[in-house]
Amino acid sequence: MYTIIYYDIDGNFIITDENTYARYTMSVAIMNSLELTQALIRCPSITPEDAGAIDLLTHHLTPLGFTCLTETFTESGTASVKNLYARLGNQGKNLCFAGHTDVVPVGDASAWRIDPFKPEVIDGVLYGRGVVDMKAAICCFIVAVAEYLKEHTLTHSISLLITGDEEGPAINGTKKMLALLAERGEKLDACIVGEPTNPLKLGEMVKIGRRGSISFNLTVQGVQGHVAYPLLADNPITILIAILHALKAHRLDSGTEFFQPSNLEITTIDVGNPTGNVIPAKANATFNIRFNDLHTPSCPQVLT
Ligand SMILES: [Zn+2]
Q1: pLDDT for 46 beyond 70
Q2: CA of 195 to the centre of ligand 1 (A)
């Protein structure tokens, strides 16, 4: 054990041992959570683009002692996606932080007050695409680990499971990474997901799970015809509206102790009819159900 003498970043004269010094250099190497979040926001990682996001995290996790495994999964018909599993420590229980670096598209960029990928703090609020969902959560977790390591010796394991495929089809992301980790004998004892859950203030609520999500495409086939001769046609729009009305009026459940009632939302209705005097041959709608723990993905009781 060596004695090490140095000036810290605040100008204090320090005499210490090599382990404490190693922890100190680690802690100054990492940016603070705001800087790290801004750096991550600058990666335009709209699903399925990684845009350097995973490498940025790896760059900051490795000096903290994390062993980083990056894996790009591919499947025909889908875009390849980069994923990260980083683990610190190889003993005790493994506390995992699960998250995603991908973000949804920016929509109309001119409607933003800033460039969505050039984050800015305005009146004490950080603006940028993906700050809330969920780049800031990932960065705060990493900085919290760095802070924790300054004061503590790790007696268990800490890991991060980060995907770039959450906002998209979610085919080449966490699901495949979990299978790979199981193959390698990795066990996650508990998992924290940093998705935005607090509507008004941080710490307002903690969820013990997530609602399920299932999307439906509904096509009604009718018989095309002229509006002047409705008896010779069969208007699919009339039927589609009736079905959607019945679906929306149906109460799925009343909620549970931990979750709000399951909810069906119609997200689009498309007919694609450019005319005003032709009854179209078919009509399409898409709707999504967010379901609580009274239902399972394999159980279709949500629609009974
Ligand atoms: Zn999210």
Answers
A1: yes
A2: 5
